[in-house]
Amino acid sequence: MSGRGGRHHCRVEHLSTAELKAGLGDVRGSPSDGGTVELIVRRPAVDEREVLAEAGLDMEAGLAGDTWPVRGSKRTADGSPHPDMQLTVMNSRAALLVARDTDRRMLAGDQLYVDLDLSPANLPPGTRLALGSAVIEVTDQPHLGCAKFAARFGADALRFVNSRIGRELRLRGLNARVVVSGTVRPGDTIRKMPGALPGQESAASSWAGLA
Description:
single chain
């Protein structure tokens, strides 16, 4: 099941830097573990969004039906899709702060919106997260705001998510890759996998089998 979202031309007054800072207390309230998947969005085409009630996460394709497999990357030698940028994950509270409306959160362009502390201190690269029957791994690829982000949420929001505090909290979100294929739904709990390091696919598979 899915709900298609258009380009959402509805105009919303953008928040100032002071107003964004005032909302940080709520963002900081996200749990460090045992968080929740709040929203799943597929990008079937450029500037198009589909809100999903269920999504398949695949080790090869990323989120099923998403455009990641055909999105070139400036960070790969041949311009092919970057394997460590299969998924982008954004804190749902941060998304609501900049979007100001739950229906506009998807405009950020991320696939997973979660109530979880995404800061590097809590989720350093290599951290594995079990959600639904899938497991994803946080990568070291930076995820920063761009011109599209400013157009949708304001220039102050762009500067804010790219600022020092913005990076410390990963307000713009993080990049991840799928290490165990599975299914995820809104409402699923997100659990950090203790001791999971790159190369431990067998341990990740065992965890996913218990989900």
